[in-house]
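Retro notes, item 3 of 5
We never archived the inputs for the zinc ion complex last cycle. Fixing that now. Sequence and ligand:
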Amino acid sequence: MANETESKAACADPRCPMHGSLKTKGTVLEGRVVSTKAKKTAVVEIPYVKKEGKYERFEKRRSKIHAHVPDCIQIAKGDWVRLEECRRLSRTKAFVVTKKAGGVK
Ligand SMILES: [Zn+2]
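Structure as it came back at the time:
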């Protein structure tokens, strides 16, 4: 019980990239969870820098992405997570949370 790792905890979620049949491809992102209100869903805020052409400066921007949370991953608001792109799971979800990430930013 004490040494149970995340990879050992099996789950019955078919939309899990580790235990289910969901394949991931394309973009990998990291961001902070801002909401876990919806069932099996997390809203993740992705910070990025955008070059501002005219003055050659950078501005900080944020985008919010809705991602699927499999049964084997427990996350809370404020956690840093890694997202991987997958097939579209619902109208708003095309990403899945694959693990908790140690955020530096
Ligand atoms: Zn799983």
